[in-house]
Amino acid sequence: MSDPSVPAAASAAESRSSIDRARTAVRVFAVAAVVGTLLLWAVGERTLASVQDGLDVAASAADAAEAAADPASALARDLAALADSLAEGTAAAAELAATASEATGDIGVAAQDNLATTLDGLARTADRLAGATEQIERFIPGDTSPSAADELRDVADGLEPTADQVRDLGDQLTTAADDLARIADQLDASAVQVEAIADDIDEATATIDTLPGLVAEVQASVSQTQDRLALDVWLIRLLIVALLVAVLAASYAADRALAALAEGRWVRAEPTSGPDPEPLVG
Fold first, then answer.
1. Which CATH number does the domain housing residue 185 bear?
2. Buried b or exposed e, range 11-27, using 16+ CB within 10 angstroms
3. pTM of the model
4. Which domain holds residue 26?
């Protein structure tokens, strides 16, 4: 008759081997959990450090903007005042150039027409007077040198080229008047551009004036974020530690439970001592 304890012992050994493998898996899981938790801690610390560095940079930028706001605003106001003065000066220069152009044009036209014509007439009149004076002097006894007729001819000879010179001067004045008119137009256009620049500077000044308020908001937001981040850092650390403790505790409990299970199965599988039971007689 076969011994019934042999299959029971084999089954107990197989169960113990399975339990040992399970305990090994639990321990491996616990080690992996520790390593993963440490890696999570390191990554979290680096991430939080990067966030803190970003907040520090934002705070530094806000401080720099706050320090530059007042000088920038003062400079913008000075530039706006300078642009306004330049626009007024340019407009006044354009008006003066237009007035000078008109006056120069009038003088040029007068020189070309009235003055030159008058000089031509004076030259002809002096020449005719010289002829008439010469006729009169023939009836006057005595010899006067130089005669009045010769002097009148000298006047006529002097006035004749003067008229042409005056016409040339009139042409030059007319050309100058045209140049002054073009300069006046350019100055008008420049005045408009400078006024536009002054308006842009005024708008920029208004924007710069809002910078201190924006900087204050950024600084307050950065400060609040830094405060929340400091609290969040400790909460994350506590959460990681709690997770690690929970995993280790669960792993330890599972290992102890498996060990107790293995011990219980081994005890039940051991053969009982004593005499073999007697077979029943039919």
1. 1.10.287.950
2. ebeebbeebeebbeebe
3. 0.46
4. 5-269
The answer to whether the CB of 101 falls within 8 A of the CB of 185 is no
State the distance between the two ends of the chain, measured CA to CA, in whole angstroms: 17
Question: What is the amino acid identity at position 152?
Answer: L
pLDDT one-digit tens code per residue, 245-270 = 888 888 888 878 877 776 765 445 45
- Return the pLDDT at 69: 74
Name the phi and psi angles at 274, rounded to 5: 130, 175
Residue 280 belongs to a domain: no
113 assigned to some structural domain: yes
Task: Answer whether residue 278 is part of any domain.
Answer: no
Q: What is the CA radius of gyration of the chain?
A: 58
- pLDDT over threshold 60, residue 271: no
Q: Which amino acid is residue 228, in one-letter code?
A: R
Scored b (16 or more CB within 10 A) or e, 134-148 reads eeeeeeeeeeeeeee
Q: Are 16 and 262 in contact (CB under 8 A)?
A: yes
Domain-embedded: residue 276: no
d(CA 195, CA 77): 14
What's the number of domains the chain is made of? 1
Residue 10 pLDDT class (50, 70, 90 cuts): low
